[in-house]
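Tutorial handout. Part one gives the primary structure; part two gives the three-dimensional structure as tokens.
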Amino acid sequence: MPVLLLALETSCDETSAALIRDGVVLGARIASQIQLHAEYGGVVPELAAREHLRNLLPTTQGALRTAGVSPHELDAVAATRGPGLPTALLVGFRAGQAIAFALRKPFIGIHHHEAHLYSPWAAGHPLRAQLDQLEPNVSLIVSGGHTLLVHVESEFRHRVLGGTIDDAAGECFDKTGKLMGLPYPAGPIIDRLAAQGDPLAFKFPRPLLHDHHDDFSFSGLKTSVRYFLRDHPDLLKNESAVRDLCASVQNAIVEVLVKKTVRAARRLRVRWVTASGGVTCNQQLRRELARACAEHQLQLRLADKSLCTDNAAMVGLLAARKLQHGPASGTLEEDILPGWPLS
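Part two.
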């Protein structure tokens, strides 16, 4: 029986709502806060929460209009429970619980990373869940706040292989960009400038690349860029050198991500690799993952770009799939879990 579900996502700085029916995204809206936080060089939690309060109702109403449905038609409600910024999470999670309570419908809290984990198994226009096609895989989840390698044995059976012990990959992009004087978020700007630069112009470290475990570390790379700029104070005045610097830094980050992901996949003898999260929009990462997977006879699935950044569509697709496997596990008494680990 088809289930019509409303999903809400407010874990960081994107306010999003989506309507899902029978594994298909009927309508989705996202209100971004990038311009608000750009002035401060990063996300300010208090401002993010206020913007979520301001944006949640019009964003939800817009998603309902796009889907052509009424709130009274809903069969269930889902919202991101964690991890994320506590004050930001509270807005969407409590709103979802309130809507479910008012409509007397089931409510389910969704793990943000788990939603990313299964987002590569959605495709098409409109987006449709394809978890029936899921194969055992090694999945790279990479964004501004997290960098994880996960072994997915089967649907809803997964094990974290490793994660970042300090800065996430996206955080490294943004922090090194800030050192160069680039506006926030710097990741997409570095990606664009790097396309015209020489990735071999400058040598930067590849942290933990040759260690025989699946953890990541990018703080040393960021520090290396800081010292490099200290020793070459005039470099930022040269546009060509800036492009080369962007390309060299990006090359170091991408090489670590790709090699550790492929190495884990080969060790575990899986045939599939997947990747998701905001940094998966990076063009070099997408190219290098495709090249490395082809070289080692691995199949690759990349999350649709619309599902890479924080969004309610991936939350709703996962929630709808979980409801197919049993009744909603969430309750209206549950609280957010800002530090919820992916198990």
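Part three, for discussion. The mean pLDDT is 96. The CA atoms of residues 6 and 19 lie 5 Å apart.
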